[in-house]
C-alpha cells in the first residue's frame, strides 16, 4: 500500500486530504510543517509527499531537497501560480491548485504513483525521457460509447503521439479539458508536465507575464525575474483553455512561440528555445472572431492544425445513462452509498433533458441527488432538473434566505469538513461582508470558478442585500 506524507498547516485541509486518501486505501501520515515532518517521520521513506507551498518555517518546496528520492506534489492557490512554476523548476513533480476537487487530488496522486511505479521519477524538467505513457487509451480517461465520441477517441489516438498543435472546440462542460489530458497522457510527453492555464481566469494585466515570464524591472512590481508557465511546460504540454479570451498582445507573443519555438520574457531582448506541445480549447467560434478582428487570423491557423470537436451532450443521447451510471457509482462510493440506482422515471428524465451545461451539469445533478437521497433509489424529484433544461436548481434546504437551515458547525466539527464543506462554510460565513471578487481572491480562485462552485453547491450569490 503506497505511503503518503501530507504537510499542511491548515487543520481543515490537512484533515480532509488525509481522510480522502485513507478512504482511497493509502497509508497516510501528516505534519504541520517541514520541521515537524522531519522530526516525526522520515520523509524520504514515503512514496509521495503532498505539501502546501507556504508553511510556517521552511517552504514546502524545501522537501524536494530533503527527500530527494520521493516525488513532491505541491498544493498552491491560483493566486500563486507563479510559485507553482518555480516549484516545478525546483523539482516538484506536479502542482495542484487550491481549492481542488476530491477527484482532482486523487487523479494527481494516482498519476504520480503510476509514473513512479513505471520507474519514471523524472521531475518534469530536462530532456525527454521517452517513457511509455501510463494511459493507453482515451476510453480509460473519458467515457463515451456513442458514435460521435468513438470518432473523438479515434482522432485522439491518432493525433496524441504526434507533435501537432490541437484546437479543441466544444460547449462549456463537454469535456475539453479531459480530452486535453488524454492527448497529453497518450503522448510521448506523458511523463513531463501538463500545464493547464485558463486564459479567462487570469487578469488581463497579468496574463503576459504569467505565460511568458518577465525580467526584473519589466514593469512596476516586477521586483525579480520570473519564469512563465510556457517555460514551465518545457518538454511537456501546455493546455490553454478559453484561448478566445487571450488579449491581443499575448496573442502576438504566442504566435511567435508557435512559429519559432522561442520565448521572450516581458522586458527581455533575448529569446530562449522551448519545446512545448500546444493544446488550446475554446467554446467560442474562433473563426468568426478572426473576422471581427478579435482573434488573430495567423494565430488561428497556427492553432487549428488539427481540430477536435467535442459534441454537446444533447448529441450523445445514447451516452447519457452510461455517464450517469459512472457518476452515480463514483459519488455513491465517495459518500458511502454504494447501492444507489436510478428509477425508470429518473432515467427517462435524464434522457429527455437538454443539458445546456453538458456533462458537467449531469455530473452535478447526480452529485446533488446522491447527497439528498435517503434510500437506494434516485427519483426525478431528487434530480430536480427543470423541464426546459435551463438553469440549475437549488436544493430547497439551501435556497437563499434559508441559510439558517444549513448545518452550522462548531470548532470541533471543523476538522471533519471536506474541502467542499470548507468552501461552502467559508462562503456562507463571509459573503455578507465580502464582495465576490474578495471572496474569490481569498479562496484563490477566479470569479468564474466561484460562480460555478456556488451553482454546484446550491449557494447562489444573493441578489440583494436586504
Ligand atoms: N466523457 C466524459 N467522461 C467522464 N467525465 C466527463 C466526460 N466529459 C466531461 N466529464 C466531466 O465533466 C466535467 C467537465 O469537463 P471539462 O472540465 O473537461 O469540460 P470543459 O469542456 O473543459 O468545460 P469548460 O469549457 O467549462 O472549461 C469534469 O468534471 C469532467 O471530468
UniProtKB/TrEMBL annotation:
UniProt feature, compositional bias: Low complexity: 117-130
Sigma-54 factor interaction domain mapped to chain residues: 142-371
Signal peptide positions (record): none
4-aspartylphosphate: residues carrying this PTM: 52
Pfam families: AAA_lid_14, Response_reg, Sigma54_activat
Protein name: DNA-binding transcriptional response regulator, NtrC family, contains REC, AAA-type ATPase, and a Fis-type DNA-binding domains
Annotated SMART domains: AAA (SM00382), REC (SM00448)
Sequence segments annotated as region (Disordered): 116-139
Domain Response regulatory, first and last residues per copy: 3-113
GO molecular function: ATP binding; DNA binding
Coiled coil: none
Keyword terms of this UniProt record: ATP-binding, DNA-binding, Nucleotide-binding, Phosphoprotein, Transcription, Transcription regulation
GO BP term, example: phosphorelay signal transduction system
Amino acid at each position: 500500500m503506497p505511503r503518503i506524507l501530507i504537510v499542511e498547516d491548515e487543520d481543515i485541509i490537512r484533515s480532509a486530504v488525509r481522510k480522502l486518501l485513507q478512504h482511497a486505501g493509502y497509508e497516510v501520515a501528516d505534519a504541520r510543517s517541514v520541521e515537524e515532518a522531519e522530526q516525526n517521520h522520515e520523509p524520504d521513506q514515503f512514496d509521495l509527499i503532498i505539501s502546501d507551498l507556504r508553511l510556517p518555517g521552511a517552504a514546502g518546496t524545501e522537501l524536494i531537497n530533503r527527500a530527494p528520492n520521493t516525488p513532491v506534489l505541491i498544493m498552491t492557490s491560483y493566486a500563486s501560480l507563479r510559485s507553482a512554476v518555480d516549484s516545478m523548476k525546483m523539482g516538484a513533480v506536479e502542482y495542484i491548485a487550491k481549492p481542488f476537487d476530491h477527484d482532482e487530488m486523487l487523479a494527481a496522486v494516482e498519476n504520480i504513483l503510476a509514473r513512479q511505479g513505471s520507474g519514471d521519477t523524472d521531475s518534469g524538467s530536462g530532456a525527454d525521457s521517452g517513457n511509455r505513457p501510463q494511459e493507453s487509451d482515451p476510453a480509460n480517461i473519458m467515457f463515451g460509447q456513442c458514435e460521435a465520441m468513438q470518432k473523438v477517441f479515434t482522432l485522439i489516438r491518432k493525433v496524441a503521439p504526434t507533435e501537432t498543435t490541437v484546437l479543441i472546440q466544444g460547449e462549456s462542460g463537454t469535456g475539453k479539458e479531459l480530452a486535453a489530458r488524454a492527448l497529453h497522457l497518450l503522448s510521448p510527453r506523458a511523463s513531463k508536465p501538463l500545464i493547464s492555464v485558463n486564459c479567462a481566469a487570469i487578469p488581463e494585466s497579468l496574463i503576459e507575464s504569467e505565460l511568458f515570464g518577465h525580467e526584473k524591472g519589466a514593469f512596476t512590481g516586477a521586483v525579480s525575474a520570473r519564469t512563465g508557465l510556457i517555460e514551465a511546460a518545457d518538454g511537456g504540454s501546455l493546455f490553454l483553455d478559453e484561448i478566445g479570451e487571450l488579449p491581443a498582445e499575448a496573442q502576438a507573443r504566442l504566435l511567435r512561440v508557435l512559429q519559432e519555438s522561442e520565448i521572450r520574457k516581458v522586458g527581455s531582448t533575448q529569446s530562449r528555445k522551448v519545446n512545448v506541445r500546444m493544446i488550446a480549447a475554446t467554446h467560442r467560434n474562433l473563426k468568426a472572431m478572426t473576422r471581427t478582428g478579435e482573434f488573430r487570423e495567423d494565430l488561428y491557423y497556427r492553432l487549428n492544425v488539427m481540430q477536435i470537436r467535442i459534441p454537446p451532450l444533447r448529441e450523445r443521447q445514447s451516452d447519457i445513462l452510461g455517464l450517469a451510471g459512472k457518476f452515480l457509482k463514483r459519488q455513491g462510493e465517495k459518500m458511502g452509498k454504494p447501492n444507489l440506482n436510478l428509477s425508470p422515471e429518473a432515467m427517462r428524465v435524464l434522457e429527455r433533458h437538454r443539458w445546456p451545461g453538458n456533462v458537467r451539469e449531469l455530473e452535478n445533478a447526480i452529485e446533488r441527488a446522491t447527497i439528498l437521497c435517503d434510500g437506494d433509489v434516485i427519483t426525478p424529484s431528487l434530480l430536480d432538473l427543470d423541464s426546459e433544461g435551463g438553469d440549475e436548481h437549488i436544493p430547497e434546504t439551501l435556497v437563499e434566505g434559508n441559510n439558517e437551515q444549513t448545518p452550522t458547525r462548531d470548532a470541533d466539527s471543523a476538522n471533519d469538513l471536506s474541502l467542499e464543506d470548507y468552501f461552502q462554510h467559508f462562503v456562507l460565513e463571509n459573503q455578507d461582508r465580502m464582495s465576490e471578487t474578495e471572496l474569490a481572491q481569498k479562496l484563490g480562485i477566479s470569479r468564474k470558478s466561484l460562480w460555478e462552485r456556488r451553482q454546484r453547491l446550491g449557494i447562489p450569490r444573493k441578489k440583494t442585500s436586504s
